[in-house]
Design a protein that fits this description.
The protein is α/β, with parallel strands linked by helices. It contains eight helices and nine strands. It starts with a strand and ends with a helix.
């Protein structure tokens, strides 16, 4: 799978993709990440990619020409399955969408900056608009890193034990149950006895019950979606 990102500040994306699971995914050839600085397609020698917005008001807008030229050039190498724009007014990202995007072959993510991107780019190119929450970041780079990490970890072969990703929160419309490791007793708190029985059926039943209870308490809205 290939994920390409167009952004104004590519330096923000260096560390998230050079360590841990994302690094391993790339080394194994399961995920190809390409980061493109929008300033490569700037309209002048000064690296300009933004301008004042029509109608006045505070904040600069990322211009049409640099983004259009960047997308057109990148699409010469092949069509993107999705062109995603990270924006607070997009659809809230969830695990279902993560799983769906992980099945794509080639994705392009556009990171907004300043006041956002010219609406005409959204109208002409963007096929999917995603938000990671009801708040505003300085730019879309960190949001894009979240999307890439979520997608990358569910690609088969990226995580050594693939069942680990399949039992994460939200995979089955439930939050994950509590987890425990050694020691069996810590500062007066003991591991639930059922986890020490060695009985897989009892453990699975306990985990399901705990997952249901935790979801009802913390995120009843997830159960309402079913």
């Amino acid at each position: 799978m290939t994920i390409e990102i167009i952004c104004a500040v590519p330096e923000l994306l260096q560390s998230p993709f050079e360590h841990s699971i994302m690094k391993r995914a790339q080394e194994r050839g399961l995920l190809s990440l390409k980061i493109h600085s929008l300033r490569k397609w700037a309209i002048n020698k000064h690296g300009q990619i933004d301008d004042y917005q029509y109608g006045g008001g505070a904040g600069m807008v990322m211009m049409c020409e640099p983004l259009a030229n960047a997308i057109d050039e990148l699409q010469q190498e092949g069509k993107f399955d999705e062109i995603i724009f990270m924006t607070p007014d997009g659809k809230t990202f969830d695990q279902k969408q993560t799983n769906s995007l992980s099945l794509k072959n080639r994705i392009l993510i556009i990171c907004g900056h300043y006041k956002g991107i010219d609406q005409r780019i959204r109208d002409l190119y963007v096929t999917l608009e995603i938000s990671i929450g009801d708040y505003v970041l300085s730019g879309g780079e960190l949001a894009a890193a979240v999307i890439v990490d979520a997608i990358g970890r569910v690609i088969p072969g990226v995580i050594n034990d693939e069942t680990s990703a399949l039992t994460d929160s939200f995979q089955d419309n439930l939050l994950a149950p509590p987890v425990y490791s050694r020691p069996a007793e810590f500062r007066g708190l003991e591991v639930p006895p059922v986890l020490l029985t060695g009985d897989p059926k009892k453990v699975e039943q306990w985990r399901l019950e705990q997952a249901l209870a935790r979801t009802k308490e913390r995120r009843p809205d997830i159960l309402d979606k079913e």
